[in-house]
Amino acid sequence: MDSSSILYNQLKTAEPFFVLAGPNVIESEEHILNMAKHIKAITTKLGLPLVFKSSFDKANRTSSKSFRGPGLAEGLKILERVKTTYDIPIVTDVHETIQCEAVGRVADIIQIPAFLCRQTDLLVAAAKTGKIINIKKGQFCAPSVMANSAEKIRMAGNENVMVCERGTMFGYNDLIVDPRNFEWMREANCPVVADITHSLQQPAGRKLEGGGVASGGLRELIPCIARTAVAVGVDGIFMEVHNDPLNAPVDGPTQWPLRHFEELLKELMEIARVSKGKQQDQIDLTPFSL
C-alpha cells in the first residue's frame, strides 16, 4: 500500500475526527514554522491526527492589491521544510493544472478550491498525482454535485478523495451553512470535512479605505459551526488558525486565534464523544417510515 493510501486510511478511521489546520497563506518561512510547531504540539497533546495547511498563492482574491503569498516555487520549499522539520503531512491548494505535478511532490493532500470544484481538467490532473484530493464544495453548488466531482477523481484512477463543506451563498455578501449538507455529501462515498472558518466568510463584504472591498467574516461564530459539524459526525475539521488574526494579511476575519485553538478542539472532542456515544448506545438510526 502506498503512502497516500496509508494516510487516507488513517484519516478515514480517525477518532473522533482529524484536523486540517494552519494559517490561510504563507506569510514567511519563520511564521509558518512557528505556527506548525505550536499547532502540532496541541494536536499531538490531544491525540488528533493533523495535516498542516497553508497556501503558497491566494489566486482568487477579491482585490488585485491583496496579499497572495510567496508563489509556487518558494512556497513549496517552505512547506517541504515544515513537513521534514515537524514530520507532519501537508495540504495545500492548486488553481491550475500545471501546478499539480510540482505540488504533488510535496503535499500529501491536494486541495481543490471551492470555485474550481467542477473543473474537470484540474480534478483529473490533481488525481493523477496519486495524492489524496480534498474537494471543497462550491458556494454555488448543491451538495449532490460533490458526488460527481469525487467520481471524476476516481475515474482518473485515484480512490483517495474527500469532500469539504464550506458554506453556500446567501445573497451577495454572506454564506450560510446548511447542516443537512454534512449528511447529503455522504453520497460521494468518502470522508466528509467541515470547513468551519471559510464557511463564515462574507465575500466582498468589507469596504476598504480608499475604495474597493475585501472579504469579511464572522469569526465569533466559528465555535457554533464547529459544534454543529462534530455533533452531526463529520470525519474531519478544516480550520485556518493564526497567532494574530487581526493583523493577518489575508482572511483575518475568518481565522481562529491560536491561543484558543486547544480550548476549542477539546470542546469539539467532547461533543463528538457524547454524540457518537448516543448514536451507538441510545438512538435507533433505522430510517423512519414517514
TrEMBL record:
Signal peptide: none annotated. Pfam families: DAHP_synth_1. It catalyses: D-arabinose 5-phosphate + phosphoenolpyruvate + H2O = 3-deoxy-alpha-D-manno-2-octulosonate-8-phosphate + phosphate. It is found in: Cytoplasm. Its EC number is 2.5.1.55. GO terms for molecular function: 3-deoxy-8-phosphooctulonate synthase activity. Residues 15-270 form the DAHP synthetase I/KDSA domain. Keywords: Cytoplasm, Transferase. Belongs to the KdsA family. This is 3-deoxy-8-phosphooctulonate synthase. It comes from Penstemon smallii.
